[in-house]
Write a structure and sequence with these properties.
The complex is a heterodimer of chains A (642) and B (167). Chain A has a 22-stranded antiparallel beta barrel. A five-stranded mixed sheet of chain A has the order 1-7-8-5-6. A three-stranded antiparallel sheet of chain A has the order 2-3-4. Chain A has helices at 15-29, 83-87, 94-101, 175-178, 442-446; strands at 78-82, 105-107, 124-126, 129-131, 137-141, 144-145, 164-171, 185-191, 198-208, 212-223, 226-237, 246-260, 263-278, 289-306, 309-324, 328-346, 349-366, 371-373, 378-392, 395-406, 410-422, 427-438, 459-471, 475-493, 500-521, 524-534, 545-557, 560-572, 574-577, 581-584, 587-599, 606-614, 633-641. Chain A has one domain: Maltoporin, Chain A (Beta Barrel). Chain A is mainly β and 642 residues long. In chain A, strand 9 (198-208) and strand 10 (212-223) form a beta hairpin. Chain B contains three helices and eleven strands, in the order αβββββββββββαα. Chain B has a four-stranded antiparallel sheet with strand order 3-2-6-7. In chain B, strands 4-1-9 form a three-stranded mixed sheet, with no helix packed on it. Chain B starts with a helix and ends with a helix. Chain B is an alpha+beta fold. Chain B has one domain (27-166). In chain B, a hairpin with a 2-residue loop joins strand 2 and strand 3. Chain B is globular, with a radius of gyration of 23 Å. Classes of the chains: A mainly beta (642), B alpha+beta (167). The A-B interface holds A 1, 3, 5-11, 13, 15-16, 19, 22-23, 26, 392, 395, 419, 421, 423, 429, 431-433, 462, 464, 466, 483, 485, 491, 493-498, 500, 502, 504-506, 508, 578-579, 581 and B 1, 6, 9-10, 12-21, 23-24, 29, 31, 33, 35, 37, 40, 42-43, 79, 105-118, 120, 122-123.
């Protein structure tokens, strides 16, 4: 029984808007500077007046190993992670490997598979927003927002790093650029292409504890005007306890035809099949609570460059079929498209203009009773823009707005504004404020699990951060303070049969995060990141503090490479309920990885046996109460590259 | 731009972006109704409880027969159990038919919320429950005794000796 009443009006809190307005005025007050005309290098990078490329400018956090695509918000706090680092990670899943690189990203776990529905883990929190289901965090894979049409969140097990070029974590969200769900953060995953003519083959086969078998084969090639990339990944495991096992099968194929050097057409498809179960709490196991999920994501991409203009058009379609042990059956789909034009009309100005449209819908029924739950789809159309303005080479402003029209909710104006300032070659500051958005999911609107409310309205969050960083050849350090205010949060109250879901939640989060890294000190590299936050009453799976660290060492002996690393994670202040109820002991575990690589000088063949010793201290810990994580276990594998 | 200019600009930026607003939590209020939902037809069994007294956070409501909803009362937002005295099959609430019961769930209301909290078969706990009803914890039981001493409930250790339990 849900009872919906109008909220009592709250006093307005326009401070963020005033801040944005002042920032806009400050930006417009600067006269056009006398900076050198940017010139394009061979790979499209833009030089500034100091002869630096974008790549040379220090990043806010972590290392930057590749050029950022044009149009990115240069004032946003980010963590950039190489694809190879994710592939070499000892963590169970890609999302956990990303969490290992940044302490303000928290991903819960319960073993080798996150799963779906009740008992699933893999909820992503970035700076206190997100969670399970993680509809406040958006994952964008190759330019396409990835979420299920009905449930509004991605499947955490659907991401495997075999074709990843890199991952970029955008802290503080960016609904101006990415629309709904990009409230607390965005994880941008980008696949790679082979850069030179020829082909390469990768195979990674591994076997380990709990009869875990993992096989990945990937192929990348460039043949004339064609680029192709494809991979097949299969994994099965018995799991560390009854019901924790399962399997995943993922194929990813992409082809790009370069019609002209400045015009290309890309087609991409990813198919996921996931099987497993909710093992249930250790005290009340439910290994028969199985799930079976199929998903397919397809997209096209048209890229055209002409002078200082770049046009990218990306239509996409995804469909998923979910079956659960209790008779639940759903087919959901999300159809969308995005057209984005990036212009550089002046040496100090980059203008991004975009149009996007999305439609989500689906069908839900009970297989046993053959009853169908009626749902209605959601459609939105958006125009967005982003202006990057550099009055001086070291000072940049980024301003943007999105006018979003939803067929149910009408217009919503989203905005952002930020500044970054390189005080010297090594020292930089940045600050940014953004108004972000999440529309209710079809589940929240219509599915009575445990309650639905068709009158729900979108959630709104305003995020702000201020940070500083220092970078040099061997030492990086950065720190940020952040604040998030979110209103109209969709919250469930009570339990069946009297549960209700309403727009009522308000959250205010303060936090501070920082990282230090010492790189290439002889054979060693060390990285430490830490985060502390006050999330107010919404403490459920939203930890107060987190520390991640890693020590890596490696050395080349001609054709031979020997390396290894130790990584660890400590999570403090975990609760299973809001208001700091049902606390969980601090989670702490460390993993060890060892690898040897031999590269044949003649054939270019590389052989790389490796060994992961996970939780090698054999600690008993859990991210979810009564869902213990595996004790000490191992995985041994062999990579072959041709 | 000289160093002074840089720092002046930095100061302006910080002032521009610093969110200086504060919450007015002191004035926070939520609006709650309690519903006697023991006759909910979705349940396998409809226990004939009348709610004689109920308290939630800092507000109290009076008699609620089956299906009744209380008037809306203002409470300070927060989290708590609904504490009640309920009479078994007795709308007159005679003490010999009454028992201390509480909501099974710790109920939450937030600032500005209007919420109806339903008390029904799965959402209650008591001192001498029939099969399937959770036992009430001692702290909740004793708080109910303190709130409504006129019902003269026995101490927690003797809770099963209350007259209604013996029927």
């Amino acid at each position: 029984m849900a009872t919906e009443r109008p909220m009592t009006p709250r006093s307005g809190r326009p401070c963020f808007r005033y801040g944005l307005l002042l920032a806009c005025c400050a930006a417009l007050a600067f006269p056009a500077p006398a900076v050198a005309e940017p010139s394009e290098t061979d790979n499209g990078e833009t030089d500034n007046d100091n002869g630096e490329t974008d790549e040379d400018l220090p990043s806010f956090e972590s290392e930057i190993v590749a050029r950022r695509p044009s149009g990115e918000d240069v004032t946003q706090a980010t963590t950039h992670i190489e694809g190879r680092k994710l592939r070499d990670s000892a963590r169970h899943t890609t999302l956990e490997a990303i969490s290992q690189e940044s302490a303000d990203v928290y991903v819960s776990g319960r073993g080798a598979i996150h799963g779906v529905s009740n008992g699933a883990s893999g909820g992503v929190h970035i700076r206190g927003l997100g969670g399970s289901p993680n509809t406040q965090i958006l994952i964008v894979e190759d330019g396409v927002p990835d979420y299920q049409g009905i449930f509004g969140h991605p499947i955490p097990d659907a991401y495997v790093p075999f074709l990843l070029d890199d991952a970029l974590v955008l802290k503080g969200g960016d609904s101006v650029r990415y629309g709904t769900n990009a409230m607390g953060g965005v994880i941008v995953l980008r696949s790679r292409w082979r850069e030179t003519a020829g082909y390469e083959l990768h195979n990674d086969a591994a076997y380990g504890s709990y009869r875990t078998l993992r096989e990945t084969a990937a192929f990348l090639g460039r043949f004339g005007a064609w680029d192709v990339a494809g991979a097949v990944h299969a994994m099965s495991t018995d799991g560390h306890r009854d019901g924790a096992g399962g399997s995943s099968f993922i194929t990813h194929g992409a082809a790009r035809y370069r019609i002209r050097p400045t015009l290309s057409l890309t087609v991409r498809n990813k198919l996921v099949h996931l099987k497993g179960a909710d093992p249930g709490p250790a005290s009340h196991p439910t290994p028969d609570h199985w799930f079976d999920v199929w998903r397919d994501n397809a997209s096209l991409g048209l890229d055209w460059e002409h002078g200082n203009a770049h046009l990218a058009i990306t239509p996409s379609f995804s469909i998923g079929v979910h079956r659960l042990y209790d008779g639940f059956y759903s087919v959901d789909h999300a159809t969308g498209g995005n057209a984005q034009l990036t212009l550089t009309p002046h040496r100090s100005i980059e203008l991004l203009l975009g149009l996007s449209a999305e439609h989500t819908d689906g069908e839900v029924r009970d297989r046993t009773a053959q009853e169908r739950t009626p749902v209605r789809g959601l459609t939105d159309l958006s125009h967005y823009n982003q202006l990057t303005f550099a009055p001086f080479s070291a000072l940049r402003f980024a301003l943007g707005t999105r006018a979003l029209y939803n067929t149910r909710y009408g217009f919503e104006l989203l905005y952002k504004g930020g500044a970054s300032w390189h005080l010297s070659d090594r020292l930089f500051l940045h600050t940014r404020v953004a108004r972000n958005y999440r529309q209710p999911t079809i589940r929240e609107l219509y599915l009575p699990f445990p309650s639905a409310n068709p009158d729900l309205r979108p959630e709104i969050a305003v995020t702000w951060d201020l940070g500083a960083g220092y970078t040099s050849a061997h030492f990086d350090a950065s720190a940020s303070v952040y604040r998030t205010r979110a209103d109209n949060l969709i919250k469930y109250f009570g339990f069946w049969p009297s549960a209700e879901v309403v727009n009522i939640g308000h959250i205010e989060i303060w936090g501070v995060e920082g990282s230090v890294a010492a790189k290439d000190l002889g054979p060693f590299s060390v990285q430490l990141s830490a985060d502390w936050q006050d999330v107010g009453r919404y403490t459920r799976q939203n930890p107060r503090a987190k520390i991640n660290f890693s020590v890596d060492a490696g050395h080349d002996f001609g054709q031979h490479f020997l390396g290894g690393g130790i990584s660890g994670e400590w999570v403090h202040g975990l609760y299973m309920a809001d208001y700091a109820r049902e606390p969980i002991d601090d989670a702490f575990a460390m993993d060890l990885s060892l690898r040897y690589r031999y590269t044949s000088p003649v054939r270019g063949v590389a052989l790389e046996p490796y060994l992961f010793l996970r939780n090698f201290l054999n600690r008993q810990y859990a991210y979810v109460a009564d869902y213990p994580m595996p004790g000490f276990h191992a995985l041994a594998g062999l990579k072959v590259e041709l | 731009m000289n160093a002074l200019g840089k720092f002046a600009l930095l100061g302006a930026l910080l002032l521009a972006f610093l969110p200086a607003c504060t919450d007015d939590d002191d004035a926070a209020v939520a609006y709650v109704q309690i519903k006697n939902d023991f006759n909910n037809p979705e349940m396998d069994f409809q226990p004939p409880w009348t709610i004689c007294r109920a308290a939630f956070l800092d507000a109290e409501v009076g008699l609620l027969r089956q299906g009744d909803e209380s008037d809306e009362v203002e409470v300070t937002p927060g989290l708590g159990h609904v504490l009640m005295v309920a009479a078994w099959d007795d709308p007159t609430c005679a003490p010999e038919n009454a028992l201390p019961i509480a909501s099974r769930n710790e109920e939450e209301v937030v600032d500005g919320q209007h919420r109806t909290i339903a008390i029904n078969l799965p959402n209650h706990q008591g001192p001498c429950p029939p099969e399937g009803v959770a036992p009430i914890p001692e702290d909740l039981y004793e708080r109910i005794r303190a709130l409504w001493p006129e019902f003269a409930f026995k101490p927690y250790a003797e809770r099963t000796e209350n007259a209604q339990c013996l029927d």
